[in-house]
Amino acid sequence: MAVRSIFNAPDLRREFEEAGVSLHFIPFIWKYVIKNPNCEWNEIPDLPSAVYPLLQSKFKIFTSTLHSVIESNDGVTTKLLIKLQNGAFVEAVIMRYDTRLGKYGGKARPGGPRSTLCISSQVGCKMGCKFCATGSMGFKSNLSSGEIVEQLVHASYLSQIRNVVFMGMGEPLNNYAALVEAIRVMLGSPFQLSPKRITVSTVGVIHAINKLHRDLPGLNLAVSLHAPVHDIRCHIMPAARAFPLEKLMDTLQVYQKNSQQRIFIEYIMLDGVNDEEQHANQLGKLLETFEVVVNLIPFNPIGSLSKFRTSSEEKVSRFQTILRGVYNIRTTVRKEMGQDISGACGQLVVNLPDRRSAKGIDVLTDIEDLHL
């Protein structure tokens, strides 16, 4: 059996309970090892004597290693290539913004510089979306909750992370138990992330959406819709056949009624496929009874794997105008970051670049805090 991550909360809680050790020591251990990542277990002060041999024999501070840090030429995007203890790799991406740039409701926005971490939940993905590089890998394995949390810890040494988005490799709701446990760790001490600062993205795994609000109230839900009708959706997202659009929309109605929260709709713009005026009107009619923000995503080419072209700026602008003007749906266009390091939306596929040093960092207009 592989040695487990100290951040794998279910295993750690179970071992402590069996040993008769109070669970209150767990956040203290996490805080200490984050500040002292190279420490030995016996260096952690003030633990019950039974804890030290338990930690020594069954847990590691990190079961993953930071293999490469790749900086984008945009100066604000960093991709982390992380090697797991089974030899597989996953990617995470740090994106830096400034919430003071831009306006909301005609007024200046509060805040300041902050970082969002895009986290992976699986090695590869079984959804097979034809526009996504990760889908070309197929599904390899689920990450443990500890491996998910370790991405946040690795990233925290490079930037102060305020927001987490589960939009990296994999379908988060297909690794539901590990996802929930990892987020619960992030919400507690010592991480103390707000649920309002965590977004889970899904292609629409209906049975898991039904459970999400009950298990993790207050999170942001993002749905990768990408088409306004079922036939187009199935063409570009084969997994959508298992999640009929009508049933998905019914599920989202219930979710929104129970959560009383805005839902984020992700919509990738594919030239001649889903970006015409008729598609904008179909999408507007589909969403007009919802409280949503639609995020239009310029398609990121993925080389020879791609059968699609990027929509023109004119088409994207017209699409946005229809949703806003005709249907009064709040609609944004995602500012793409990290394309040169294959760190942008849909581009995450494992490769092994050389390690590069960090550069100076600027700040960009905020695009992730759409709930503010």
UniProtKB/TrEMBL annotation:
Keywords: 4Fe-4S, Cytoplasm, Iron, Iron-sulfur, Metal-binding, Methyltransferase, rRNA processing, S-adenosyl-L-methionine, Transferase. The keyword Metal-binding applies. Residues 111-340 form the Radical SAM core domain. It is found in: Cytoplasm. The keyword Zinc-finger does not apply. GO terms for molecular function: 4 iron, 4 sulfur cluster binding; metal ion binding; RNA methyltransferase activity. InterPro entries: Aldolase_TIM (IPR013785), Methyltransferase_A (IPR040072), RNA_MTrfase_RlmN (IPR027492), rRNA_lsu_MTrfase_RlmN/Cfr (IPR004383), rSAM (IPR007197), rSAM_sf (IPR058240). It holds the Pfam family Radical_SAM. GO terms for biological process: rRNA base methylation; tRNA methylation. Its cofactor is [4Fe-4S] cluster. Gene3D superfamilies: Aldolase class I. GO terms for cellular component: cytoplasm. This is Radical SAM core domain-containing protein. It comes from Jatropha curcas. The lineage of its organism: Eukaryota, Viridiplantae, Streptophyta, Embryophyta, Tracheophyta.
